[in-house]
Design goal:
Elements: H1 2-21, H2 31-40, E1 47-48, H3 54-60, H4 66-79, H5 96-102, E2 106-107
Parallel strand pairs: 1-2
Helix pairs in contact: 3-4
């Protein structure tokens, strides 16, 4: 009985102490993404449609999912920066209703 108790104590101790020696890897902060987000969202909370990535557009704008956000970025890459907010109407999937829902959240700078 003593041998069994001693063996059990050794096994439990080794399991406990082996778990302590393993440190979880620390994630490094994503500075470039944070910098883009700060640049793409102005001080008033407006989203800069000329610098925001698809993820930010999807996150910050009403009625904009992954496909529409990617379409906005693709349009911008193909045609250059937006010169007016109304130019979003030229993006496939963006209509007047979506534009009006988000007009106060959009910026060009």
């Amino acid at each position: 009985m003593r041998k069994l108790s001693a063996l059990l104590l050794v096994l439990l101790s080794s399991v406990f102490f082996s778990g302590l020696s393993m440190a979880a890897p620390q994630a490094e902060p994503a500075a470039p993404a944070a910098a883009v987000s700060q640049k793409a969202v102005g001080t008033e909370g407006a989203v800069n449609i000329n610098t925001a990535d698809a993820s930010l557009l999807q996150q910050e704008l009403k009625g904009i999912g992954k496909v529409k956000a990617e379409a906005i970025v693709a349009y911008r890459e193909a045609n250059g920066p937006f010169t007016t907010v109304d130019q979003l109407l030229e993006v496939k999937g963006i209509g007047k209703a979506i534009l009006e829902k988000n007009r106060s959240r959009l910026s060009l700078e």
